[in-house]
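Dear support,

Our group has been running a series of protein-ligand predictions, and this particular one with pyridoxal-5'-phosphate is the one our PI (initials K.S.) wants archived with full inputs and outputs. We had some confusion internally about which version of the output was final, so please treat the block below as the authoritative record. The input we submitted was:
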Amino acid sequence: MSALPWSLLPNSAREADDGSLLIGGCSVLELAAEYGTPLFIYDEDHLRNRCQEAAASFGDQAVYAGKAFLCLAMARLVHEEGLRIDVASGGELFVALAAGVPGERLVMHGNNKSLAELHAAASARVGRLVVDSFDEFELIENVHEETGFVFDVLVRVTPGIEAHTHHYLATGQDDSKFGFTLSTGQAAKAIATARSSPAVRLRGVHVHIGSQVFEAKSFAAALAVMAPIVDAHQLDELSMGGGLGVAYVEGEQAPTLSEYGSILREAALAAGLTATLAVEPGRSIVAGAAITVYTIGTIKEVTGFRTYVAVDGGMSDNPRPVLYGSGYETFLPRAVRADRNRTVRVVGKHCETGDVLVREGKVPEDLRVGDLIATPVTGAYGHSMGSNYNKVPRPPVVFARNGDARLVVARESYDDLIRNDRL
Ligand SMILES: *Cc1c(COP(=O)(O)O)cnc(C)c1O
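Confirmed final output from the archive:
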C-alpha cells in the first residue's frame, strides 16, 4: 500500500529532514504542541493563491462563498485578494462587516431571510441581494419603505438540472427549497415582479446547481439553460453560483479554478451570452488549504472486525462523513511519506456510533497511542459546520506562512460553553 498522495496536501507542504510535515514553513508537530489538538492548520499562501486564481479567471465577478469557511482573518484575506464575499445569513454578514469588508462587496443569499437580516443588509448597503421567494419580495418592500434603500438584486432560478453529487448537495433540480422554478414559469414571474418593484433594481439572475460537482459539463449545461433567460429579459448579469468539486481521496480528480473558468467562458461563447458572468466558489478556494491534526487516545482491536483508532475530535469538527458519508485520507504528521500498510477506522470521541472521521483509514504499521494523526483537505465545511456536541469546545485555527503561524481563531474554552447559559 501507498503513502499519502502528496497532491492532497496544501501547496506549501514539505517534508522536513526528520520525515515530518511542514506547512507554510512551520512544523506541524510544533504547531500541535503549541496550540494543542484538534487543530486546523491552513496554508495561507494556498488560500491566497486560490483567491488569485479565481480573480484571474473572473476578475471582480469572483465571489467567495463564505459559508465554506469564515472568520475575521479569512474575510479580510479574501477582501485583500480582490474577491467579493457571498454571505447567507445575518451572522455571516456580521462577520464580513466586522472584518472591515465594505457592504458593497457583499452578496447576500438565503432562502429564508428574516426582516431583521434584510434590514441589516440594507444598512450595510450590500452590493447584491439574491432573492429567493415571493414572500421575500414583500419583506424587501417593507424594508425599502422604511429605509429608502433600493436593493440591487439577482433572482435565483432553479433550472431543473440534476447535478451529479450527493442528493443533500444538489440544489438545481425542480424539487428544491431554493429559488424560482424555471419550468413552471415562476422564474419569469419573479423577474417581472422585480422589474415592477420600486424597492429593487434587477441586475440579473443566479443559479447554483449544487456542491462538490466534478463534471464541468453540469455547469456548462446550467449555463446553456440560463443564457436564453438572460437574453430574453435583457439582463446584465448571470451568476453561476458555486459548486466546483475538489479531490478528497486518492484517485479523485477535479477541474482547477482556471479550467472551470475556461469551461464556463466557452459555454458562454457557445450560448452567445453577453452578460457579465459571476461565480461563487467556496470549497474550491479553501478545502485543500487545510489539514486537521488530532491526537490518538486509544487504539482498540475488535477481534474479527477491525481496529478503531479514537482521536480527540470527531463529528464536532468535521461532520461531513456523518452527513454525506464523505471519504478522507489520513496520515501521520511525523512520517508524512511513510507507507500506510494498515487499515483502521478513525473515530471521534462523541457518543455516537456514527461518529466516524475515516471509515477505511490507511496508516503506517507503527501507529501508536499518543501519535498525532491528520486528515488533509479539511479546509471547507469543517470548522464552519462544527458544533459543540458533547460540550466539546471548537478547535483553534492557525494560518501558516513563510515560517510564521498566527492564531486566527482561538480554541473555545469551557467558559465559552456556558457564556449564554442562565441559572
Ligand atoms: C454553497 C453555495 C456556494 C458555494 O458552494 P461550493 O460548493 O462551496 O463552491 C455558492 N453559492 C451558493 C448560493 C451556495 O449555496
